[in-house]
Amino acid sequence: MSFVRALATLAVGFAAAKGMQKVKEMGGMDALRDKMRSAGEPGGMADEIGAMAQKMGLPVQTDQIRGLLDSFGKSAAGASETAEAGLGQMMGMAKAGAGALGGMIGAMTAGSPMGEISEEAARLMIRAMIQAAKADGAIDEAERKAILDQMDGSSDEEVAFVEAELNAAVDPVGLAADTAESMRAQVYSAALMAIDVDTEAERAYLRHLAAALMLDEGKVAAIHTGMGKPVV
């Protein structure tokens, strides 16, 4: 069992789900290909995952994650351009990249003194990601499947936890109440990572979460700037 590994794989799952939403909105796959191609670039998804992992105290180097996601992301985007079933092939390769990334991060904490603390932190961050993604009610069955598909190889406990959170009500106050002061910025960062901050519902959720976590405007703005996301 490793909720740290699950956190890493779900991060890729959320990126896939967001890409699928863009496909539906734009009527094409260009946005999804671009998201996959840029996964390992500075300021991309790899940097977001690396920053969160480092805040959790994990001995992760951003360059490691960039290299891994860059390779899988570009391969997936390239394959989809020539494959008849491009979306399915892209999701399959993204899933392979998620598994490799999750295994790497999970192995770093297995049996370590920080393991139990990291596991609890990962649970909180998974809750934050799922709540943020549900803030505008945009998780449909296809997006839910894209997220849960990343859980192959996870324990029954991990899958049950994620499914329960997908079904639970959005409750930023309850999430904040379970978050220790030392984890407030990380939990907010996890929520921010899961969304594009392009709807009023998402912006409202982030404002409510920041208030519940007692993060001041300066801290929130710094987190947004550091992750390349618009400030609410």
As for the number of domains, it is 1
**How many H/I helical runs?**
12
CA-to-CA gap between the ends?
A: 36 Å
Oligomeric state of the chains?
single chain
Strand content: under 5%
Question: What is the approximate shape?
Answer: globular
- Low-confidence parts lasting 5 or more residues at pLDDT below 50? 82-87
Number of strands: 0
Quick overview:
By secondary structure, this protein is mainly α. 72% of the residues lie in helices and 0% in strands.
3D structure, described in words:
Helix 1 runs parallel beside helix 6 (about 115-135) and helix 2 (about 30-35) packs antiparallel against helix 4 (about 60-80). The protein has helices at about 5-25, 30-35, 45-55, 60-80, 85-110, 115-135, 140-150, 155-165, 170-175, 185-195, 200-210, 215-225. The longest helix is centred in the N-terminal third of the chain and has 24 residues, at about 5-25. With about 230 residues, it is mainly α. The protein is built from 12 helices and no strands.
